[in-house]
Write a structure and sequence with these properties.
The chain crosses the membrane at residues 271-295, 316-341, 347-370, 391-409, 421-442, 470-489, 808-832, 860-884, 904-927. By secondary structure, this protein is α+β, with helices and mostly antiparallel strands. It folds into 5 domains: 1-54 and 236-393; 84-228, no CATH class; 427-502 and 795-873 and 905-932; 514-575 and 700-785, no CATH class; 584-694, Lipoxygenase-1 (Sandwich). The chain is 46% helix and 21% strand. The protein is built from 26 helices and 29 strands. A hairpin with a 4-residue loop joins strand 6 and strand 7 (160-179). The longest helix has 44 residues, at 258-301.
Length: 932
């Protein structure tokens, strides 16, 4: 028995080598599939945690000083927990440093090592304090100054701070500091430091803990900022962190921040864990089908030898060992070797793959082994096997699974993730079963018509089970390739659109300046042609309105946004250019006191902007009863010219004047200038309280482009102004806005400034740059007084997107598809090698047909099978895409524009066409030499 088995192995070495290599590839794929979710999940978790803001990596424990005993107990329990770093602090609001405004008196443990002292030293005694450098310079506070500090109380009624009646305490200023890094984790979230638009840093007054009690106050805030180590964050879910750390220590869990981060990490792990089997399992199944076909064809070729052994009385187990023992041994050995190369040979997925491989080989060998000796000698299989092959049981089961999977497509787990593979496979296999019967029916007609080569090819396609199997395998491989190509192409399109919109430009600089107008002036100075830079302002969302993006639409051509031209046409700047003021300004006013008011007080102010964008307030004067002319000399900053933005009037509430402004030199008549928030004009202005006068060309309502569903006009959105408000009106709609997303408003920057009289403070300023922007631009902006504090680019965004869960799973999808095509090429060569010496072709050769004719018919048969497979694969992939594209690894999160209904055609057809040509080339080479 053993020598016979050795002889068979020697005779089969080529086929067994093919089996060993293919199962080695399957073992490697199974091992990678088992290791990929955990390894990739850890990598994603590490990246996500490293990029997460401090607000998501820490939580705060806070208590009133009256409850200090319980706070200290909780604090001690937290300090004893591995993986948690605690920063203890105390603070409360005080007056005595900034006039009429509160500062924070703060102690934070070990704060001195995180400061750079620009003058003096850190506090060492209870009566000593250090102050922030920028504020100290502005307020003329230095080392040696004494600050009389009192607790600050806020009056909601009068909207003002006032000192506590309990008294104050003097502090000696012993140091002036700047933080080494105001954004470092030590300072906690929110940071106690604020950077103003001009780049100056405001911060707390820092002192010793025992000095806090010296200031009379009712109570103060005790804080403990708890920073969670990355190793702890990456190893726990929020539920585990809650139940394992917070609840045992009786800590109130945070409502956002840390839970958001841990849930995001868990979602990424879940996505990879669910998507990986949906990518790997179909290819492993395809590999088992390939292995079944290879072993089945080889055993069918050797069934005569097995029949002789059956006649000799060899038992069934030994006959099975003779027919399937060698393939099984080689397959399992190859599986272990392939899995070992990847470093994970003993995983559940590898074990299940080994069981599936053994099952496929057993099923392939069993019909031949248990056949009756006479049937084996006649090379006829058992009747039950033939009847079983005729039953479409597999196709029916696959269709049922495919239909069932559609019900779970919208879920993130379960059978729905396999819907694309099941739908494509069901369509391919069903058509592949019907197709040979159609070809078989056409065979006699082709032969009678004298088309010998085509008729023989049709006969081989119609009669041989391997033909149907080859069509099905080709279709499955092409469907897999089409799906991965569609996913790759669509993912690239979606990713690029998302990056283009979310970043806004090729590079975006976050900038600060004393006034927003300074940023605008600086950008227009360094790029006067508007070729590569655009000033942009943003207003944070409020109850009155969502987030607002203000673009300089006079430079809309720079925007890489298909809606930019239409938006610029709708809301672009349409303001009249007025002459600049440089020397003196005079205004002619006729003033009449309101009824019942004696000697009312009022003041007129001119709001101007200098040539470098700085906003200035110039006092015009106080009107007197009757007609008068108020004349002023503009400050030196206006020597190069100033733009008049608005005229502001201030009077006592309930008292004032009825003003008629007639002339404003050098602008002549200004009687048509309008009062914000009313129907009054400058020629008849009832001034009580405060009011704002704007040029007539400035729109009464600021036109805006809104995202769907905001109902700007119906909700009466507006911006607060001095003496009134600026109404927002919707003039168009866009599905998404750059940098804002699918909820927000877009306005023109120049129109916004004009409509608010230059008075509305933008919350942040940016400079958007095209790819052609020079490298020296940052230095040029800073020379103009604009501080660049951060930047983001599309290149950086692409790098981040390439590490997303969907992108990483898609790479695995590509690798699995390559494996599937290697399997298809191997089975094509192996089956062709067996079929070259098939008995029916040998009989036809003996009957007198030329070998060239037979070889051509075989080539044509395989070529037709491959072409049928390509068409079926494309149809199957199209069906899967139409019904289940949402579960393909295209994007792992919500995208602003969604996933396109139709994938790009060229990136899909090129690889499928190349694959089809490669299969046809393999078909040609498989029959290139004469059969023996």
């Amino acid at each position: 028995m053993i020598p016979l088995l050795a002889l068979l192995i020697r005779a089969r070495w080529a086929g067994l080598l093919t089996v060993g290599v293919l199962t080695g590839v399957l073992g490697a794929l199974a091992a990678v599939g088992a290791d990929f979710p955990g390894r990739t999940g850890d990598r994603l978790a590490a990246d996500t945690i490293a990029e997460a803001p401090l607000a998501e990596r820490e939580f705060r424990i806070a208590a009133d000083s009256k409850d200090s005993s319980n706070f200290e107990t909780t604090l001690n329990r937290v300090r004893d927990t591995p993986g948690l770093t605690v920063r203890y602090g105390q603070q409360f609001d005080v007056l005595g440093f900034v006039p009429n405004d509160a500062s924070t008196l703060m102690f934070r443990e070990d704060f001195c090592v995180h400061l750079k002292m620009t003058a003096g030293r850190c506090p060492v005694a209870p009566g000593e304090i250090v102050v922030p450098a920028d504020q100290a310079k502005a307020l003329q506070v230095s080392v040696g100054s004494v600050l009389d500090v009192a607790q600050g109380l806020f009056d909601d009624k009068y909207n003002m701070w006032y000192p506590s009646p309990d008294g104050s305490h003097p502090f000696d200023v012993v140091g002036v500091y700047t933080p080494l890094d105001q954004n470092e984790d030590y300072w906690g979230w929110p940071s106690p430091f604020t950077t103003r638009l001009d780049g100056s840093v405001e911060g707390p007054l820092l002192t010793r803990a025992d000095a806090m009690q010296a200031v009379p106050h009712d109570s103060h805030l005790l804080t403990a900022d708890v920073l969670v180590e990355p190793s702890l964050l990456s190893s726990m879910t929020w539920q585990q962190f809650l139940e394992g750390i917070l609840q045992p220590k009786l800590i109130e869990p945070p409502s956002d921040g840390l839970p958001t981060l841990l849930d995001r990490v868990q979602d990424q792990r879940r996505y990879v864990g669910v998507a990986t089997p949906a990518v790997v399992l179909p290819v492993l199944t395809l590999g088992c089908l390939v292995l079944f076909l290879l072993v089945s064809r080889q055993v069918q070729r050797e069934r005569g030898e097995l029949g002789v052994q059956a006649v000799r009385g060899l038992p069934v187990p030994l006959r099975w060992a003779l027919g399937g023992g060698a393939p099984l041994f080689v397959a399992l050995a190859g599986l272990v070797v392939g899995a070992s190369i990847t470093g994970s040979p003993f995983t559940l997925s590898v074990g299940l793959t080994a069981f599936a491989v053994a099952f496929a080989i057993t099923v392939a060998v069993l019909p031949v082994v248990i056949a009756r000796p006479v049937d084996a000698l006649r090379q006829v299989g058992p009747a039950w096997a033939a009847r079983l092959r005729q039953l479409p049981a597999g196709e029916v089961a696959l269709v049922a699974l495919a239909v069932t999977s559609l019900a779970f497509v919208r879920t993130t787990e379960g059978l729905g993730n396999f819907a694309p593979a099941l739908l494509a496979a069901a369509m391919v296999l069903v058509v592949a079963r019907v197709l040979p019967a159609v070809v078989r029916a056409a065979t006699p007609r082709l032969l009678r018509a004298g088309r010998l080569v085509l008729g023989l090819a049709a006969a081989q396609l119609g009669r041989r089970p391997a033909a149907r199997q080859l069509i099905a395998l080709s279709g499955l491989a092409v469907a897999l390739l089409a799906l991965v190509a569609s996913s790759l192409a669509t993912s690239q399109v979606v990713r690029e659109k998302q990056i283009a919109l979310s970043v806004g430009a090729d590079r975006v600089l976050s900038v600060r300046a004393a006034d927003p107008g300074q940023v605008i002036a600086a950008v227009r100075a360094v790029d006067p042609e508007g070729a590569f830079a655009m000033p942009v302002g943003r207003i944070s969302s409020e109850t009155r309105h969502p987030e607002i993006l203000a673009l300089d639409l006079s430079r809309a051509a720079q925007l890489d946004w298909d809606r930019a031209p239409a938006v610029a046409a709708q809301i672009g700047p349409k303001l009249t250019e007025r002459g600049l003021l440089s020397k003196t300004v005079s205004v002619t006013v006729t003033a009449t006191p309101l009824d019942g008011v004696v000697n009312p007080r009022a003041l007129l102010l001119a709001q101007v902007t200098t040539s470098d964008g700085r906003r200035q307030t110039v006092t015009l004067g106080s009107p007197n009863a009757g007609r008068s002319t108020l004349t002023i000399t503009l400050p030196a900053a206006c020597d190069a010219g100033c733009r008049l933005d608005a005229i502001n009037g201030v009077a006592a509430s309930g008292a004032g004047w009825r003003l008629s402004l007639e002339e404003l030199s050098p602008y002549a008549d200004i009687s048509d200038w309008r009062v914000v928030g009313s129907l009054e004009k400058a020629g008849n202005w009832k001034l009580t309280g405060s009011g704002l006068l704007l040029p007539p060309e400035v729109p009464e309502a600021l036109p805006a482009i809104a995202t769907p569903g905001l109902d700007v006009d119906a909700r009466r959105m507006d911006l607060p102004l001095s003496g009134g408000s600026l109404k927002l009106t919707q003039v168009g709609e866009a599905p998404v806005l750059p940098r804002i997303g699918d909820t927000g408003l877009l306005v023109d920057l120049d129109t916004l400034i004009a409509a608010t009289g230059g008075a509305h403070t933008l919350d942040s300023m940016e400079v958007w740059l095209t790819a052609s922007a020079p490298a020296s631009l940052t230095a040029a902006l800073q020379a103009k007084g604009v501080l660049v504090v951060g930047s983001v680019s599309r290149a950086e965004a692409r790098t981040v997107a390439a590490r997303s869960p969907a992108a990483l799973v898609l790479r695995l999808f590509v690798g699995a598809t390559v494996v599937a095509w290697l399997l298809l090429g191997a089975v094509l060569l192996a089956v062709a090698r067996v079929d070259r010496g098939s008995p029916d072709l040998s009989a036809l050769r003996l009957a007198g047909l030329r070998e060239r004719t037979l070889r051509g018919s075989s080539r044509l048969a395989y070529a037709i099978a491959v072409l049928f497979g390509v068409l079926l694969g494309l149809l199957g992939a199209g069906l899967a895409w139409a019904l289940a594209r949402s579960v393909l690894p295209i994007t792992s999160g919500e995208t602003w524009l969604g996933v396109p209904v139709v994938p790009p055609a060229l990136p899909v057809l090129v690889p499928v066409g190349g694959g089809a040509l490669a299969l046809l080339a393999v078909t040609w080479l498989a029959f290139a030499r004469r059969s023996r």
